[in-house]
Amino acid sequence: MSINIIDINKLLIQFSGDKKIIKNFLTICIYEIPQRIEHMKQALKDNDLVSVKLNAHTIKGIAANMRADSMMKSAENLEKNCIENQQQMIDMYIIKLEHDFVDIKAEISKNMLV
Length: 114
Known about the structure:
mainly alpha, Four Helix Bundle (Hemerythrin (Met), subunit A), 5 helices, 0% strand, 80% helix
């Protein structure tokens, strides 16, 4: 099973094929995700795993709605590792989320969705 960066077909179904709404939605997501990642990095510096977990949970929801499976899985794993206080894994998954975000932006651009 391959993981889609963004499942465009499911996104089109979710928004009844309305590309204008999809563009608006993805624009908001592209703005929100890096802010959440930065909040997580700061919370990690402050040793505030509750905030890291909360932001990971929020990104997981955003990614699910974007049909961005890889990012959703990364955020889910980050959330789990916050609960288990697995510092090394937390660091790794924050980096993974950053990479997922770069891939998502490229996919959106490639498909001219924003």
